[in-house]
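chain below, 485 aa
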Amino acid sequence: MQFERIKKNHKKKIIIGGLILVCITSAITITTTRAKYKLIQDIPLVRGSINYKSYDFKVMAMYKSEDKINYTEIDEMPSEGYNINEEKSYCNESNGNKDTTAVLKTINGNHTIGKLKKNDRCYLYFDKSSDITISDIILANNPKETVPDFSQIATADEGMFKTSDGMYGGYSYYWRGAVTNNYVKFGKHSNNIPDVYQGNPSTENTNFLEYDSLSSCQNSSIYNVNCKLVSKSNKDIYWRIIRINGDGSLRLIYDGSKGHINGENTSDSIAIANMQYNKEYYDRAEGVGYTYTLNSQRADATATTSTIKSSLDKWYNENLLNYDNKIATGKFCNDREVATESNWHSQPNSTFYYAGHSRLVKRKIPTLSCSDSGDIYSLKIGTITADEVGFAGGVFNTNNLSYYLNNNHNYWTMSPYYVYYYDSLKVNRSDVFRVTINGVLAGNHSTNNGVGFSYSGIRPVINLKADTQFQAGGTGTLDNPYVVV
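prediction:
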């Protein structure tokens, strides 16, 4: 997202038309009353003019609210500090039916009224606007335009950086290191989530299994230490901001039923525990696909859904479906391009690596581009990529206890790592990158590991829409997170 500081105008612009934001000169006169608006027919623009026929639509009533609950009738349209409530505001046609094509919204501080029919009668509701937008967050962080040393872990609070966004276009703004101002509170867990008990294999090992009762945990032959109740039903959901995408949407990773300090040993920030990335075809190259088609490097229209995608889609429907109108359809890269020295094969007789290995293991240069458009998924929910871990301060095979992505548990990325061939066993194991205990960005080298054998956790990633607003006064800290309104 390309961003410029803009001075606020103390007088609202009201734009009548097909959702075209224009600079309106003094040649337009708008008489603001409860009854109606009157327009001069010629509206001069920065370039040229529009001959706009003067429809005499009527505003029958206007209301405003300070709390989005209680509304009082008003005689004049609010100036700064209020937004049109799109759900409550409406227009009726002359026959009494609702005009379903009418557009009533506030965009970047401008009240926008468009696609009306002649003689529409409109009822407008205004809510006191939040003081914080995603653009405000960028300004507050004073992003750096330098390039950090990605070969070194980021253990300090390095703040926000600006970089080109290859998938979205424009610029992305990402948080790096032990940042403490990227907390967001958004949504609630479903009230149907059952309570579970978690047990560890030892007092030193943070891996865990979940059980439906305390006795099941305590009587298990393994993972029977530190058995504890975990309840998330109807609790708030907290997130950490990964980055602001090039289109202005906000990319978040799940942090649990409360916010957690950097490096805290907490299973709460794992939304789905002990899940394989893909139960099927883990012994073939296709196993790294978020969706996959047999005998094909990339998925096609007949693709099969991976285990991790099925799990995430289910979690979304159970916990976030009620908030779907605030969540953008984001772009997620499942980069199946092979490294330059490798060739793709479904069942190879030698090991080959994916392009992510070249970027993050050999050269240590992450990217926000995706090698092939066929690997870009348009989704409401996904996982973090290994490249995003690199931008955040993680480095391959290197501990980082301090940065904000470390929760001392294993969890998946959606970035393919390699297909490993075990010559002695004549078998293949496909694998993707993951973040492991101590914040390590890692792959695996064992016949017992890979997408079908390694049970890691899942931290969902979503994208809030670019016009998302937050309650006034939030600073993004653990004690004062950005709260979506």
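The chain has five helices and 32 strands. The chain has a mean pLDDT of 87.
thats it, cya
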